[in-house]
Amino acid sequence: MDAEQQNEGLVPRRDARPGLPGSLPHGSSHGLSRSAGSDEELINLWLRGKSKNTAEAYRRDVTQFALFFGGSLHYVRLEDLWDWHDEIRDEGNSLATIARKIASLKSLFSFGHRIGVLPVNVGAAFSLPKIPSHLSERILTEDETRQLLTDEGSTRNTVLLQLFYASGARVSELASLTWASVRGRKTAEGHKTGQISLLGKGSKTRSVLLSANTWNQLLALKNSELAAGHGQAEDPVFRSAKGGPLSRQQMWRIVRNAARRVGLSQKVSPHWLRHAHASHALDRGAPVHLVKETLGHESLATTSKYAHARPDDSSSKYLDM
């Protein structure tokens, strides 16, 4: 076995798993390559159709487990999952991180068994750890939110902050937003406004109707982009100094810096503005199903946690903006 195969963790490890069905005799290189190919092909099939960020996160989790286990996925037992759980727990990972890593494996094993590649779904018997909810700690008040939605030094940053809150968009959704996905329209009442189309999880597109104030801010940004020779349909709405779209990390820094500027001590992230959108809209009477559609939640239960195309309505209209 060459070193690369051992490090990839995609082949049966004879020394650590003696007596396993399918253990390979010394020198059986053909069997090794078939096993490695089998695992790699399974992982690639499992990741097909997932967004780039999701696929990268899943692959990291599975690679970490493969390096720990050191054998083919076909030979994973329930006790191996428990051993890995204990190891990543002892490394000091949070419950949320542990649950995410285990969930990645459970998804892979479920998929492999469903398509007939893995003989059993070993992950089915492994329960995810219960995670205490800290959502209330990450919801800004309306006053705190209003304070951080303006960056006097940058029109682009101000519109980015405003749109994070107004649309409830995820970082990846605004990072990929182009001017082709921004268009003006009239509301059912005849008022001029606009909407944006966001490419969300699972490559699903949803349209979010904006308030007149947010729309005017967005138009002001486009006018400044056009004056600078940008702002065409294929151009990113939130352009970096190099001409391409702002990265997710750059967007995080803009939000973090805005929070620091107004004296918020918490480590505020873009997702906090998504939380704020949901909470504030529900507090102001937005129907829970409308918040669900605006935020792109798969389940109504996800949206209900916040309760303490061409849309004619969106929860954006319920915000005080």
What would you note in describing this structure?
- By secondary structure, the protein is mainly alpha-helical.
- The protein has 2 domains: 3-125, Orthogonal Bundle (DNA polymerase, domain 1), CATH 1.10.150; 136-318, hpI Integrase, Chain A (Orthogonal Bundle).
- Helices cover 49% and strands 6% of the residues.
- It has 13 helices and 3 strands.
- It has a 3-stranded antiparallel beta sheet, covered by helices on one side.
- Helix 7 packs antiparallel against helix 9 and helix 7 packs across helix 11.
- The longest helix is centred in the first third of the chain and has 20 residues, at 95-114.
The fold-level CATH name of the largest domain is hpI Integrase, Chain A
If you compute it from the alpha carbons, what radius of gyration comes out, rounded to the nearest whole angstrom? Answer: 24 Å
**CATH-scheme architecture of the largest domain:** Orthogonal Bundle
CATH superfamily of the largest domain: Intergrase catalytic core
User: Which percent bin holds the helix content?
Assistant: 40-55%
Question: Using DSSP, what is the number of strands?
Answer: 3
Number of domains: 2
State which percent range the strand residues make up.
5-15%
* CATH uppermost class of the largest domain: Mainly Alpha
> What's the overall geometry?
elongated
Strand pairing plus helix content: what structural class?
mainly alpha
Question: Spans of 5+ residues with little confidence (pLDDT < 50)?
Answer: 1-37
Instruction: Give the topology string: H per helix, E per strand.
Output: HHHHHHHHEEEHHHHH
Distance between the termini: 63 Å
